[in-house]
Write a structure and sequence with these properties.
The protein is an alpha+beta fold and 216 residues long. It is built from 4 helices and 10 strands, in the order ββαβααβββαββββ. The N and C termini lie far apart (40 Å).
């Protein structure tokens, strides 16, 4: 039985079941959210790892290559070859690869202490996966509160007509964000930004996975 929920207009596909997120490719959806909570083990490992000042793990390649390189990062970061966090990152990358239909992915995983993208923007990708394991999650704006006149040109105040309507991913939730290169998107790419953490001295532990169409 499906656990699908929707916002109005129906741009957000939400479910407690990953398999339901296959529908993200339907034109009406801008964003898909897998509503899940982290296990106690994942919470503990994320809280421990975010305290360590390590360089993020950046990857570009196939899942077979990721299976070889990811464990080495976790050996350096936690001193352990087998961790729940490592398994979860690899599993999400695998699920994303299957859902997006791409054999090669780009991946970022690590501690973030700055405001990566303060300004609301869209991505030049087909599809992007975001999961915050620790700290504030990504903010996104439904099309009903977006001022198209200033889209990707104005500041946040100009682009967003109703700040109260801005949505935020919860810790552990997995967001699938359509970018400008997705072929099926009635409402265009989803507008989103990173949460403000730098001025508050906060840190995040973030996973980002992109299709290879990603452009800087």
């Amino acid at each position: 039985m499906s656990n699908l929920l929707s916002l109005s207009p129906q741009v957000c596909l939400q479910s407690t079941t990953w398999s339901d997120l296959q529908a993200i490719h339907e034109a009406d959806y801008q964003i898909g959210i897998w509503q899940r909570e982290l296990s106690p083990e994942l919470q503990h490992e994320a809280a421990d790892l975010v305290q360590k000042e390590l360089e993020p793990f950046r990857f570009n390649g196939t899942l077979d290559q990721l299976a070889k390189e990811l464990p080495q990062y976790f050996i350096l970061s936690s001193g352990s070859l087998s961790t729940s966090l490592q398994d979860d990152v690899f599993q999400l990358a695998t699920q994303f690869s299957a859902l997006s239909g791409t054999a090669e992915i780009r991946l970022f995983f690590g501690r973030v202490t700055g405001d990566m993208c303060r300004r609301f923007h869209t991505d030049i990708v087909s599809l992007r996966l975001l999961c915050t394991y620790y700290g504030p999650g990504t903010l996104w704006a439904p099309p009903g509160i977006v001022n198209e006149k200033y889209l990707n040109r104005g500041d946040n105040v100009q682009m967003i007509s109703d700040e109260a309507g801005v949505q935020q991913l919860a810790v552990g939730e997995v967001g699938l964000l359509k970018g400008a290169l997705h072929e099926q998107s009635r409402f265009g790419a989803v507008l989103h930004r990173s949460p403000s953490i730098e001025e508050f001295g906060l840190a995040r532990l973030l996973l980002r996975v992109d299709t290879r169409s990603f452009l800087d």
